[in-house]
Design a protein that fits this description.
This protein is globular. It is mainly β and 136 residues long. An 8-stranded antiparallel β-barrel has the order 1-2-3-4-6-7-8-9. Strand 5 and strand 6 form a beta hairpin. 14% of the residues lie in helices and 49% in strands. The longest helix is centred in the N-terminal third of the chain and has 19 residues.
Length: 136
């Protein structure tokens, strides 16, 4: 083989490997609810579930999660946490910064005993937002 052919083959292999390790996941939401801390530091009650149809993307190549709500929510992934699994759940968590630079943790939870239903939790110190999601 000529040197030129070897370089071309290696280039294609490198590009192929790069694309195989970075993935883009797309979800749709079906509803969301919010839980807030009260002034006394205790958690309140979950809000009523609001039905919403919003696109959510997880882009591991760009290290970000985007929720395309009326106001776009962009989360920069700072750290990929270890996957946790038990009898009832599989949890993928990410340490993130939001549009405002606030720290938060996003978790995609698969509820194994609920037909593999998925939820996206956005955890801040003073509030938690949950979206019911499904794969596109």
């Amino acid at each position: 083989m000529t040197r030129k052919k070897i370089v071309v083959i290696l280039l294609f292999m490198i590009l192929g490997l790069q694309y195989s390790f970075s993935q883009n996941y797309k979800f749709k939401t079906s509803g969301f609810s919010v839980l807030e801390k009260k002034e006394n530091g205790k958690w309140g009650k979950w809000s009523d579930l609001d039905l919403v149809n919003i696109l959510v993307t997880l882009d591991t190549n760009k290290n970000r999660i985007v929720i395309y709500s009326q106001v776009i929510q962009l989360f920069e992934i700072i750290e990929y946490q270890a996957t946790e699994e038990n009898e009832t759940d599989i949890v993928y968590s990410f340490t993130c910064k939001d549009n405002n630079g606030d720290d938060c943790t996003l978790s995609i939870i698969t509820r194994k005993k609920q037909g593999n239903r998925k939820q996206l939790y956005i955890n801040y110190d003073d509030r938690i937002i949950v979206y019911n999601i499904f794969n596109m």
